[in-house]
Write a structure and sequence with these properties.
Layout (H helix, E strand, L loop, with lengths): L1 H10 L11 H11 L8 H10 L1 H19 L5
Helix pairs in contact: 1-4
Amino acid sequence: MMAGIRFFWNATRGNRLRPWRSEYLRWRLETFTGKSSNKVTAKDFVALILDEKRQMVRFLRWLAEMDEYSQGSMDR
């Protein structure tokens, strides 16, 4: 869970209360959906999160796994 919070914190730097304005997240939305990053709104951002819940959970699990790996706590 902390890895997901850390990612969100870093990805929304300067726009933490309005994550849809984050240049990084807008770029990621553009590459994921194909919609121009200049046209991303709060509605688009929330809709993507609700529509892609499974992918988001999968991504957060992957983040946690990578965080454990980088901390050296995984067996090699």
